[in-house]
Design brief:
Blueprint (H helix, E strand, L loop, with lengths): L23 E4 L4 E5 L10 E3 L3 H9 L6 H16 L7 H16 L6 H16 L5 H38 L6 E5 L14 H10 L3 E7 L6 H12 L4 E4 L4 H7 L4 E4 L3 E2 L5 E4 L2 H11 L3 E5 L22 H4 E2 L2 E2 L12 E4 L7 E3 L2 E3 L1 H12 L2
Parallel strand pairs: 4-5, 4-7, 5-6, 7-10, 10-14
Antiparallel strand pairs: 1-2, 2-3, 8-9, 9-13, 11-12, 14-15
Helix pairs in contact: 1-2, 2-4, 2-5, 3-4, 4-5, 5-6, 8-9
The protein binds 5-S-methyl-1-O-phosphono-5-thio-D-ribulose (MRU).
């Protein structure tokens, strides 16, 4: 792929998905969904079925499926599969069922806002529909679910294009090859597409613009060590794995051209919740004058949250810190605090890269308002 910048998205940009790592397989005709069990990666590649909401909740809670956009996709497809097998007698029963199942899904992971946004959109679409029959409501719901699922591909191409242009235009300073740093896993394994931050990194690599990627291990769940390295290897991107505590020294001793991260929830002022350790990276980036970018689809913005102060931070079980491969390597009764996310204050962010443009945090709210009216 040629390295083109500053223009409309080329039609073939990231269009060839034949070699993309698929984390989810959905057969619309047969109404079958299987997901890659991410707990087994990188040692084993095994797809497991998801047939209903209970199974969707189970794979999300267990972290077999994770990453904010992927969680939302598996949730709405689980709902799609279950509601289409069900006989509901009237529209009141339909709405009650939809409400109950949505709440069950929303409760699985509280920080990842894509899930709540998608389910709210579904609810709104069914409520707005003037058709009162169960069949009519089901048809509107099905259409919206498939629109959200299919729409991610194009939304992701725009997001990756915007990130790709931003990095080449504003971080390369005439250099052909760039050194990048990322945390957690934000690629194909976290979405149904190329991914957010990692999608941008893969696009830059395909254009021959990557010298090296520092991937943070991402304790305690090791999404960086287990999943990001799998994806970087799969795509042939040169990389080096570092522990989270090596980030400062890496920035001190190596010229990092940009830090690209994902997000689980972005407030309208640009405060960004992402994997624990992201805030630390932003502080370090500011100290070392490295551009720091969350790469975020519209679906990760919380349009009703003004700032990040009250973003709910999911706390995970202590065993994730105390065990290795399911075995306690630290005494089981060790007191542990295990917040899965932190919030990076907007003032530490260079720009927020989105599918609707790249904005300094101060400009995000206006851009979101304008985009949501399109
Ligand atoms: O706990 P996880 O693995 O679901 O956390 C994932 C992240 O923090 C990602 O950065 C975020 O969901 C964006 S993924 C495109």
């Amino acid at each position: 792929m040629k390295s083109i910048v500053n223009g409309p998205i080329p039609d073939d940009f990231m269009r060839d998905v034949s070699n993309r790592l698929n984390t989810l397989l959905f057969d619309k005709e047969k109404r079958e969904l299987t997901v890659l069990d991410q707990l087994l990666l990188p040692l084993e590649k095994k797809y497991i079925p998801v047939r209903n909401v209970d199974e969707a909740c189970a794979v999300i809670k267990s972290m077999q499926v994770r990453g904010a956009p992927l969680i939302a996709a598996v949730a709405i497809l689980g709902l799609y599969l279950e509601i289409n097998q069900k006989t509901l007698k009237d529209s009141a029963e339909f709405l009650h069922f939809l409400g109950e199942k949505s709440q069950q899904l929303i409760d699985t992971r509280p920080t990842a806002i894509n899930l709540r946004n998608a389910l709210n959109d579904l609810k709104a679409c069914v409520l707005v529909s003037s058709v009162q029959t169960v069949q009519g409501k089901l048809a509107s719901l099905n259409e919206k679910i498939l629109e959200i699922y299919d729409g991610e591909q194009e939304e992701n191409r725009r997001l990756v294009w915007n990130g790709y242009q931003e990095v080449i235009s504003n971080c390369s300073h005439g250099k052909e090859k760039l050194t990048l740093l990322t945390i957690c896993n934000t690629g194909s394994l976290a979405t149904c597409s190329w991914g957010t931050a990692l999608g941008v990194i893969v696009a830059l690599h395909q254009a021959g613009r990557v010298e090296n990627v520092y991937a943070l291990e991402t304790r305690p769940y090791n999404q960086g060590a287990r999943l990001t390295t799998t994806e970087l290897k799969h795509n042939g991107v040169p990389f080096m794995l570092i522990t989270d505590s090596m980030a400062a020294w890496t920035m001190k001793t190596t010229k990092i051209d940009a830090i690209l991260v994902g997000a689980d929830q972005v407030a309208l002022n640009g405060d960004t919740a992402n994997k624990i350790g992201t805030y630390m990276l932003a502080v370090l980036a500011n100290h070392h004058k490295v551009p720091f970018y969350p790469v975020v689809p519209y679906t990760t913005v919380n349009r009703s949250r003004e700032n990040g102060d009250s973003i709910p931070i999911e706390e995970r079980p202590p065993k994730e810190m105390l065990q290795a491969n399911g075995v306690f390597v630290i005494p089981e009764d060790t007191p542990v605090w295990n917040p899965a996310f932190d919030v990076t204050p907007a003032e530490l962010i260079t720009k927020i890269i989105t599918d609707f443009g790249n904005y300094p945090p101060k400009e995000l709210k206006k851009a979101v308002e304008e985009f949501s009216q399109v």
